[in-house]
Each structure stands twice: as structure tokens, then as C-alpha cells.
Amino acid sequence: MFNSAELLRILPMLEGRFHYAQVLESSNDTAASLIRSGAKSGTLVLAEEQTKGRGRGGNRWSCPRGQGLLFSLVLEPDLERAQWSRLALAAGVALAEVLEKSGLSAEIKWPNDVWIGGKKCAGILVEGCEDCVVVGMGINVAVTEFPQELNATSILLECGREIDREALLADVVQSIIAWGSRCGTYFGSVVEAVNRRCAMKGEMIQLRQEGLQLSGMMAGVSEDGYLMLEIDGEMEMIAQADEIRLLKVKQ
Q1: Are strands 68-75 and 18-24 parallel, antiparallel or unpaired?
Q2: Are residues 242 and 120 in the same domain?
Q3: Distance between CA 229 and CA 121 in Å, rounded?
Q4: How far apart are CA 134 and CA 124, in angstroms?
Q5: Is residue 135 a contact partner of residue 75, using CB atoms and an 8 Å limit?
Q6: Does 27 share its domain with 120?
Q7: How confident is the model at residue 250, as a pLDDT?
Q8: Which of 36, 45, 53, 229 has the highest CB neighbour count under 10 A?
Q9: What is the CATH number of the domain that holds 213?
């Protein structure tokens, strides 16, 4: 259970706009509903469990009750709508930075996953609603078992000690707000931070984009936040992809 009063004390910028529930279908959907009812920037929605949690491309996101952080933060960024997707990279950097302060080495899998030790620890889903952006994040905090088919891990498994979820949430929210503010004029600092932690950089990858498959070397992230894919000596800029995976090269 979260102590709402303590969380609001730690995060005064929320100004009381904190919505906490044991079970929600989706924190992003709840945040969108609140926006349509007049919710402002800084509104935070937190659930212990989501029954219809989702990631990019409609992929399902699930986490056992009380073993993760499943939340959505409402922002009104001073950005053009075409730049709103930058917030996914900023949120990834925000979480990675917090994890690094705890002694963990985190990577960012473009555009919306955070990895530890080559395994997924968190997913990010950024969605627009009216004049706001909802930054949704699911973090595996204390999960100890995952389905065999999932290449996933948790903070507990990686650091070997219990994590104060309240403190972690406060740190991540503050970090998202800080890095999110850099997605305009100072977006170069976000890109630099991503490239320092870029998962699969220099590796051969395969990505699926609207039914097409492309293969090449992952060369990092461009100044616009696009994935740079080197194919036969030519650099392709990828704005979005449905799936990205490592391509095993035959020896």
C-alpha cells in the first residue's frame, strides 16, 4: 500500500493530483479520462494491478499485484505534437538514471524499453490526449518469476535487495519531469544520454515496420530521436517500428 500523504509531501509538484487504485484496467486510459474531465499537468495515476495494461503496438503488459510500479503521468509539454514521442526516450533516460544511482547498469532499447543485463525491466507508453501527453510506465520492481518465453527481469533480481517503491516512484516521477523538460531546445542532451545507454548499438538487428522487415546494424539514435539503421553502407532513419530484435549472425 502506498501512503498518499507521504507521496504528495515528497512530490509537491503534484499539488494533490494523485489517483491511486488497487486495480485498474489501464492507468493510461484512466489518465486520459481524467484529462477529458479537466485534469491538469502533474496528475499521477497509480495502480497496484492492471487488467488491460498494454505497451506499444497493442502488446499486453502485466505484472503481479504489488510487485511493480504501474503508473501514468500527465504532462502538458511545450512541444509541437510531432515531438511528443520524444518523451518516451526522455522517460527511458529518467528511469535509467535513477537505477544507475542505485548501482545498476541500465540500457535503453529504442524507443520505449529499459533493460538491465540484456533483459527488459520496464516499458513506456506515451499517448496524446487533447492538449496533454500521458507518459505511462510499467516497472518490474519485486517480481521474482517470469514466463519462460519472456526475456525479462526485475530490480529486485538484479540488485538482490528489497526496494522502497514509494521512494522509487518519487525519484522516477521527478526525473521524468526533469528530462521531459529537455525535449525541445535541449533535446540533444536527451539523445546523448540515450546513445550512452543504447541497447543493441553496433549489433545486427531486424525490425518490423508496417508489415515490412528491415535488417541492418543498429547505429544509435539520431538528433531527431530516430533509430539509425545501417543497411549495405547506407543509413536509414527509422521513426517508428512495431518490433525490434537482435539478429543472430551465423558464424
Answers
A1: unpaired
A2: no
A3: 24
A4: 10
A5: yes
A6: yes
A7: 47
A8: 45
A9: 2.30.30.100
Domain membership flag for residue 92: yes
Q: How far is CA 132 from CA 23, 25, 74, 146, in A?
A: 24, 20, 7, 34
Reported confidence tier of residue 66, pLDDT bands at 50, 70, 90: confident
Nearest to 109 by CA among 217, 218, 214: 218
Same domain for 214 and 95, yes or no, is no
251 found inside a domain = no
Classify the C-alpha dihedral 206-207-211-214 as positive or negative: negative
Task: Quote the domain boundaries for residue 18.
Answer: 4-196
Higher pLDDT, 85 or 14: 85
Per-residue pLDDT tens for 166-212?
A: 999 999 999 999 999 999 999 999 999 999 999 999 999 999 888 88
What is the residue whose three cell numbers read 520524444?
Answer: 86
Total number of domains constituting the chain: 2
C-alpha cell belonging to residue 190: 536527451
Higher pLDDT, 63 or 132: 132
In a domain, 212, yes or no: yes
Max CA separation in the chain (angstroms):
58
